[in-house]
Protein 1
Amino acid sequence: MVSVNNNNTQPEEQPKEDKPSSLMEKIQQLGQTNVPQLSQDSKIHCLTIVGQIEGHLQLPPQNKTTKYEHLIPQIVAIEQNPKIEGVLVILNTVGGDVEAGLAISEMLASLSKPTVSLVLGGGHSIGVPIAVSCDHSYIAETATMTIHPIRLTGLVIGVPQTFEYLDKMQERVVNFVTKHSKISEENFKDLMFAKGNLTRDIGTNVIGSDAVTSGLIDSVGGVGDAMKKLNELIDANKEQNEGIIQ
Amino acid sequence: MIMYTMMPEELIFPMSQDIYERQQVILYNGIPLLVARNESNEFEVIRVLSTDPNHYLHTEMQPGAKIPTI
């Protein structure tokens, strides 16, 4: 990681902050910018799960990916920073690596701070456990989630062993989702193995309110609802902590 | 030629290494950014990797902005 640090402030040389276009000039002339120092850190942090969830194989740069090596340290930092009181997770993902997706889901589920997730656009395949891992989950009315059995791409060496391994991996996903949402194992598996919903594939595509009626997601809503809920959860969390101190 | 395979495309047709090397993560004023080095040897911001929503409001490090390399 290359570190570019431009933080040495020289107050005498700083032009007045009134013109926004002067910023580019400032970089060109002085070789530095003066980032406005915010009086306080934001108490709500936001994690965005976009594109494909990348596994152990690095995808070419034209793919939009969410990398676990970026997200996991960020979640650790959020857990450790006392100034951060809540996390909003925004999902617009096609899915991806099962191990990486479950790792992120487990990190979010075990976070001691209130978390709210919001599925915008799509939260497909391994995006489902990430969406349900939060304390409260929202889905936009037009957003969709595809629930389907896990697949394998790549080389298969031992077929029976690989099959058993895949079966166990699928069980992990099913267990996680049923543990962290209101959907029963039976219903989730029904959705997962349903025929005729997806063209030439098994599974179900649940849209907005369907995800809520099946018990997978808590409610339909947008970013406003999600922030409101997160603030409620933060207040409840604070009250609870104060109660423990007394 | 049509190739039917379960293998991911990038496993069969590997990208050249310099495509991967063009992108990197830098820490600019304490904010992690995913940048790509362009022809004029500047960093072009591709993505802000921070979780702090305030970091997305800095105009000088919005996606597409250029950061001079020192």
Protein 2
Amino acid sequence: MVFIDSIEGMDMVFHTEPPQGIICVVVGGAGTLKSSFVYNMLQKYLDGHPKERAVYITFEESKEGHLKNIKSLGIPETPQIQMIDIASFKADLELWDQNIFKEEDYLNLILERAAAPLAVYEPHGEEGSDDAAKEFPPKYLVIDSMNALLALLGLSEPLVRRKLQDFFFRIRQKGVTAIMILETQVVDDRPEYFLVDGIIELGTEKMGNEIKRYLQVRKMRATRHEMKPFLIEASDGGIKIIGELF
Amino acid sequence: MGRAVKKTTIDLDLALFRRLKQYALDTDRTIREIVTEALQEKLARETQVTEGTQTPVKDIEDNPLAHRVVQEIERVMPTELAVRMLSQKCVKHDVFLETLTRRQLTKELIDDVLSSLHHMADDRRIATIRDNLMKLSAEGGA
């Protein structure tokens, strides 16, 4: 199960697994390991599920920059997570034509990728084997970040909720579990919160002279989970949940 | 046979003309070459601003080769974006997507398309697209 038993210690936070097809935001300020946490969680889960795939769409940071970050935390890159680097693709094309991207392209691209079949990759699918000939649609979709996506859409505040409502409806129809990364210091009262099924907050807390990182599930529909904050730690082997914060 | 030309006379600001003449000397080119290039670039930019380098999807349907090339790119992005990206790449290589021929689908054009596409897909998928595009091009054989 991707949430409950991927990252070490997540079983302290979740007592049941969120259902497949949910939309969840991972929210927090800068430096709270949002991207690395999501990648690590999916990578650990997928490692034990060779036929499953995830698509990770990055709108802000380049693929190379993102992979460098996760590798610095000892999180291995996996071919089961297909990285789509819209940031670099857009920069590359806009060198020649500033108007090549239209606002609807971004949402269409996400929706199309959420349902597009992905090949079975080495080392899991051997050339010539039955698996190699098959392609599977992704089960998990990551959008990094919602802030960047919304900025590209250039929507005014009243339109954001309506547009997201329609977008989330269409994402749900695809059946993928969507994890959206949202950078904000203001954890309450954002239009996305009312529309999503789950909110996982990552934050920092000053304890004496030390700054500690924590994870807290603020909302997860159809799931039994703790509401308390849990201490997280990034070590050589990736991210771990250590225990309750207080 | 040479291309048809039309002689014309234009008045240039003297300072601009002096800069142009110096630039021609520095780059070892004729004033005619530089003015032609500058006009082509200006007109291409204007076309992009008003129309984008954007070929409507319906315009490629009459060209089976362009249609097949778009189908390859559709493996990693929606059709309309694929058409716009390919149109842009074609313009960069002085060809038009809607009238693309096998001879115009050069290795350089394919490499240029793939250099952007590699942000959107893994190496294995890019390799598949590359193989298929090379098969479609004149350089890919019969």
Protein 3
Amino acid sequence: MLCATAAFAQKKVTISGHITDIGSGETLIGAGILESKSLTGAVTNNFGYYTLTLPSGEYDFQYSYVGYEEQVFHVSLVRDTVLNVTLKPGEVLESSHIVARKDAGIQSTYLGAIDLPAAQIKNTPVLLGEADVLKVLQMMPGVQGGTEGFSGIYVRGGGPDENLILLDGVPIYNVDHMLGIFSVFQPEAVKKVTLYKGSFPARYGGRVSSIVDIRTNDGNMKETHGTVSVGLISDKLHLEGPIIKDKLSYSVSARGMHTLLYSPLIKTMLKDSYANYYFYDLNGKITWRLSDKDRFYFGTYQGRDRFVYEENGKGEATEYIESQTEYVKNQSRTDVGVFWGNTVGSARWNHVFNSKLFANTTVSYNRYKMVMTAGTRETEIRNGIKSVNQYHLDYRSGIRDLSARIDFDYNPSPRHLVKFGTEFIRHTFIPERMSAVDREIKGKDIQVDTTLHFGDPKKIYRGNELAFYIEDDFNIGSHLTVNPGAHLSMFNTEGRTYWSLQPRVSAKVSTNVGLSFKAGYARMAQYVHLLSSAQISLPVDLWVPITKDIRPVTSDQFSVGAYYDRIKGWEFSLEGYLKQMDNILEYKDGTLMLGTSDGWENRVEMGKGTARGVELLIQKTTGKTTGWLAYTLAKSDRIFPDGAINNGERFPYKYDRRHSIDLSVDHRFNKRWGVDAAWSFATGGTTTVPVREVSVLMPDGWVYSAQYVNHRNNFRIPPSHRLNIGFSHHRQLRHGESILNLSVYNVYNQMNPNFVFMDYGPDYDKDGNYLGTSLKMKKITILPILPSISWTRNF
Amino acid sequence: MKRILTLTLTAALLLLAACQNTIRYEYDLNDGKITMLGKLSTIDSVHSVFLSMSYPDRTDSLPDAAVYCYVNGERHQASKIHPGYENEYDPATHEVILVPRKNRYTEYQFQADLKPGDDVRFEASKGDLKAWTELEVPQPGTIVSVDTVTVVKKWSYQAIDGTDTYEQEYIEFTIRLKDVKGTDSYFTLDAVMNTVTKLFSGELITETLRNAGRLDYETFHDLILEDGYSSGIGNIFEDLLPVNSTHCFSDKMFKDEEATVKLYIPTYVFKGYHNFYPDTDLVQLDKTFSLVFNSFDRSFYNYLRAINNMICYGFDVDPIVEPTMLPNNVTGGMGMVSIAAGTSFEIVLPTVTYKPYEIIYY
């Protein structure tokens, strides 16, 4: 009998299932399950699925999630069991007490991994009332904005193209609207954002500085809900609901600038000369829960920026030519259009093979495309004979990816969570194509009909990227968790194949007093580059792959951290890192940065970069007042030993900022009123300015004068700081809620520098007398104090 | 293309023009540094060094400096060269008068025969300011052979308003070059035309040596001579990129070996343009065409590439061009002094005579 009991006790069984929101059926990512005796736990993956293996027996399982009420189930586990759990949202944010294998946050094994729930993104006050995922990320330690007020992100000394931004697992190449003032992600469609910047999980690859994993809503499985929002810049509509209750749901989000909606009106008003700019985003998702074992997701995203200009002219005249009277009618039309944006489509299949093995299969297509067109059409009717001159120019560039990926979560025992998988991406790069059509028609005769192609019209670059990964998050005893992993990738282009084995390892030691320590190492490789034209995101920026001569960028990052979470609702983290980057690219000295890929390999230089820093993050995650304080001390530099940049000497990186402080506070006074404040300070970045005039010797022996620059990025731009405040008023209605939001960007009107440049300007004495001109440093501020108001109606 | 870009950027700039302020940026206008420039050669025996003063907002000439050159320890004093004259309007007399040219540099000359391996030191000082540089004369490369042939080149150029077809007659120079063994070497290959003009009015009245200087040439996708720059032939995208106008290149494609390069000079350059000279009844032109193959050190190669960028995109810092960092090899001051070990290949062209009152244009 004793032997039988012992055998029974040794039998391992697995409890698994999905954790969802009780009201909407939305899966909860990162929700926890904890067995209260042994304190063994698990966390839901990106699809809300959890699995926990234990010896058979009687257990109390505690299910919880941030902002939700905890649920406890008593379960008699004698065989593998599926338990789908629904959680009810709480009135105020309550923390989850689960200490388990989280993918991010201080409880995870990874360093530099931060979760941003959608509520946190929506509550952070930002520019013109537009909540913005990337701008909230900029307030995290180790993440900096590029140009003040714009949405580019620079992570731990890396460049803007070194961040892999995934929308439901699909990379997005152009993440900006309005030259980078807003990002393309609609907060209404976003469920969760996870940032990795330190010891990267082995399942990610392809960029060297950060991974931003954005997951969108699946759609309400229970009932139809929606949101309508009117802001200063844009209008938004979000709808979600069941198509078949608890089986099939949809989620649709649309956002567009007012100028998009009113463009027909603007066109009517401005008949002769019409100009307009707008952007829009459309997100759609269908979720199909076929069974407890199979779920399908179909997602799509389309975003566009568009600038159009049209000019129409008309005229009539009587001309006397060689004593003959000629009646002439003229008509002309000029139009210019620029549009750019992403199109993404994905299909995903979740399959639970058994309680220990979960698989996610994804196929996706994504495309970034930029098209500029310009054309003129001149029509002349002379004595009844019609002549038409037409000229049309077309310039386009883009990148297209087709990818397939399969990921497995394997839970062989409570101590191990093994993730493995593979991915293949077929990249097609169209760096630039330009063609022109010239047509002249007189009467019925076609006199000229020519199509010209500039550059090589067939020029495309292709790249095949294949990756395999495996990682195991396993516990050794109750205080040590180790996550070793490896990411093996291959990139094939121009007949050359690059292989990269990227070891990743992180370890976490927990103590009984709430303190924990982590250390990690990660190697990353990157096979694509962005040829950027300026400090802001321009549509003419070009993505290009590595070539047979330009090697992949790699980074090796070591990081350590100390963490404390014993005070309820508070989290403290302190991390340090050292990152070495190889084969990073910069334009050579004296190189035109305009977006042409012709000979781009000759215009760039490969070099090394070093980034080091210390990051402090204090978060209050629960209660009426939540928020965080982030401080970053960082240093980042570059060196290009071949001498084509800065004479081969080390120089500070363009966005090397020594200090950054971000404070974000969200306070709910009651159910009706709330206030959010965000204050940011950052040391200025660097720029290059001439320091003197100098004589130069020309090849023909002449001597000229030129502006002399002693080294690249030799001037530190003044620091930036600003306070943004938002007030929100919530009113419960019979169906839903009405929210009025009043926000002020840059409350104390700090004239932060967006761009700086040198220019000759006038000098005056104290009486206002003109003294002459001298060289001056000038700054442009485009974002002074900006109040805004928005209204949102949830139903 | 430019129009579209201009419109796009204008729209962006309108947005950016929201507010402009001046940032405090202090510099000492009297913080002067001696700038020393020179391109010396083993081919020449008279060498020029150009000195100037560099300030944050200007450059000035440096007429009263002490300038010395030491070749293997032997001192040569350099003397100041008169800058020549230029016309200037005199407001007092309302006349145009000849005045010394107001260069923002001062030329100094000295005599010395330089040989490969020589140690050379230049010093320039004025008051408390002192600048110097130390160099070793490099080993020369070799022009092994030169072949010429007249060719007609045709190509289509895709401009934004249509395709133009060009046709041009060139002298094609096929040149076999030999690298300097055992070291990274940097070269220039220049085409130089020297013209001696003799004016007669019954008898010889003047003889003028006019160094026409470096001639421009085409390379038509010669990878060695273009050295990573554009050939400038093809389409509007290549128009955006600089060509190798300083004619410098490295030996990375023919290290320790020989290489064949091709350059093209229009035939009309050799026929020339005949000036009119008053009070002259006969003009005689004695022309010598030279290919000059100079070898020099890496710092001067970097300097020439920096200058090439400036020639293409301008001498001031431009927001859409990465700033150019001018290399220096002068301690205590600024500038670049180089010594080239040169070899040349000369072609003496047939003497041309013409009567100026019967000017013939070819």
Protein 4
Amino acid sequence: MTAGRTLGQFYPVTSLLHGLDPRAKILGTAALAVGLFLVDSAAGFLLISAVVVLLVAASRIPPGTFVGFLRPVAFIVALTALFQVFFSREGELLLEWGFVQVHEGGLVRGLFLASRILLLVSTAALLTATTAPVALADGIEDLLSPLKKVRFPAHELAMMITIALRFIPTLHEEAQKITRAQAARGADFSEGGPIRRAHALLPVLVPLTIGAFRRADELAEAMESRGYRGDEGRTRYRELRFRTRDALALCAAALVVFAGILL
Amino acid sequence: MRIELENVRHVYASGTPFEVEALRGVSLPVEPEEVLGIVGGTGSGKSTLVQHLNLLLVPTSGRVLVDGADARTIRGGELRGRVGLVFQFPEAALFAPTVEEDVAFAPRRLGLSEGEVHRRVGETLGLLGASHLAGRSPFALSGGEKRRVAIAGVLAMAPEVLVLDEPTAGLDPATREDLLGVVRALREEGTSVVMVSHDLDEVAEVADRVCVLENGEVRAVGAPEEVFYSHPTTAPSTVRVVRPLRGPHPEVGRPVRFEETLAALKGLLEGRV
């Protein structure tokens, strides 16, 4: 009945990180992400890893749960890292076994790449786990609002993100219902090869798509009947407030990034 | 075919903060060739209960017996063919380009010959009064027509037990009456029907036995007159009319169905004149 914890799911507890302004968190995450691409030393990666561990502790998300968030990318990280290790021919030869060769450069590159991806995903997971979807969308809207002057639909974009996020659990539940209804009619989603299995999914995907369109129509009508006219003259129930601690957090993030690059 | 739930418990999201105990030890038989009505408020566990009848949900503890044998020993596909389950708002799962194709889906999955599939589709659509819709797209039908087609999609497997979860929710009165007629016809042919409903009046019309669920437990089960006349909060309108008359006029008896009640009241009036 309940969706498993997946990447990008909000984890509702109160913590220092949960209390920060979403704009500070978005900018901080962006800074760390850019920084991660520029860091190129073991010391730099160690520093940022330490900071991420501290942030996870500050978010009061149980470490086990947080590691669970990263599980979906584990395979890709392992695969790309192994590619680097086995196919890079730089530096000293460390190991040779048949045609397999492991060079020092490859090993270092593989480790760096794995750390880079894992840390990137960790910071993104921290952002979405500590920021309610609505706050996240509000933050994005606010950060993009200067672009409204050049007619960039910042409000509409944020509204679309909010609605999309809101409908993930709804569609998930709907998919489960339809899956069970088709299972009751003898549908089997586990037998046969990939093509047969994809074909077996049609009885679920068709009604799910039709349902999504119907929902979209109903939602649009419900919004209009409540007077929604888009951005014009719209006020917010929750105003965003950028406090001193948000500024401090942002400065700290910038400092970490600079230190990481310089190290 | 006789299905028996034996002390079935079901816990959703076990071991998480969202844990819910939907069924707390339910024991209930579904006898051959009967219409069993299951009633109870929202959240009483009705929908969870019926999904155990074909093991779409597996009990957290307890057993489901089919003709005395543990249902888990029967192959999933076979069990689902023998116990047809129609979910609430089954029209949400229509998917094929034509009504005929959609109804043929389940019997085809049973591995029947094309001729037999075709015969069953025709027969089932006929029973549900939807033969004229066979060539149309299921998405272009009215709500009532969709419901008929969706129910046909399960009935085409010719199950020994048909389970209907709120089959008449949101339907127009004419389609509702037709569906209750189908339930009666199926019972005449020897198919058991389990019908979950919020509408006590329609349960009163078709049920041979009634089970009242409350908070995941069986609060009462038995003949309709037993259940409806002993639980004041669970009574169809016929019983609500007759019950106050039983004090001064015990001879009115315990009618439940509309026709019975009408006859009993007529008898009462004629006796007074």
